[in-house]
Amino acid sequence: MNRETTNRIRFLIEDVIPPILRDSRLFKGMASLAWGKHIAHLADFRARAPFLSANEYEDLYRQHPRVHEGTDNSEACVRKIAASVVGDSVCDVGCGTGVLLKRIRETKPDLTRLAGVDFAIDDAARIEGIEYHAAMIEDLPFADGEFDTVVCTHVIEHILDYRKAIAELRRITRRRLIIVVPREREYRYTFNPHFNFFPYTHSFLRAMHPVPAAHACVDIGRDIFYCEDRTAAAE
């Protein structure tokens, strides 16, 4: 399944079904027909978020079934990200299968360094020309300003201490930081292990505070595309 298909499903589930039904046992029962016991497990996972051990957190993401083919990004987001890359080096934090890095390389063949970071999926380690690092976003193994462009898509919504994660992304970025998150509301029962929910672009801008003057934050389908220039932010 691709992102475009799941976005159409999300529209029906998140915007058409009213909250009183989305949080009900009736919805839980219907959703369980398609997703099994995982629905209840995800609800419990979010409720216990502040008390989870590192092993519990990692185990859920290793066992969570993959929904999308290759990347969680829509084609429109992929094109926007690739066109927004600047400089010679790129790091994709939360790179997953590495598909986004490959698409960036196709668009920017002159890049001298492509790096991917993930802690649960190591597919990118087997892609020639991409250096893979197994690490958590809250503690990245790079020097300050090591990459011209840093990309992080569909990760911040999963991170309990997302402000620390954002600070790390900014720390390793020399010129441009690009972040994509889903535009969605929180409900008790969902099909994903998200902790953070951003229904509007201004919801996400609050998470990025302080926001530099040189930034963009726009809706692309049911996702939010955020981009900031660190060179201007440092001045």
Per DSSP, the total helix count is 10
Structural class: alpha/beta
- Low-confidence stretches are none
Q: Classify the helix fraction into a percent range.
A: 25-40%
Instruction: Kindly estimate the percentage of residues that lie in beta strands according to DSSP.
Output: 15-25%
Distance between the termini: 43 Å
Q: Using only CA atoms, what is the Rg?
A: 18 Å
Can you list the strand order of the major beta sheet?
Answer: 3-2-1-4-5-7-6
Number of strands: 7
Mean pLDDT: 91
Regarding quaternary structure, what we see is: single chain
Walk me through this protein's architecture:
- The protein contains ten helices and seven strands.
- The chain has helices at 3-16, 19-22, 25-35, 38-47, 54-63, 75-84, 99-107, 162-172, 201-207, 230-234; strands spanning 89-93, 113-118, 131-134, 147-153, 173-182, 215-220, 223-229.
- A seven-stranded mixed β-sheet has the order 3-2-1-4-5-7-6, with helices on both faces.
- Helix 6 (75-84) packs across helix 7 (99-107).
- The termini are far apart.
- The mean pLDDT is 91.
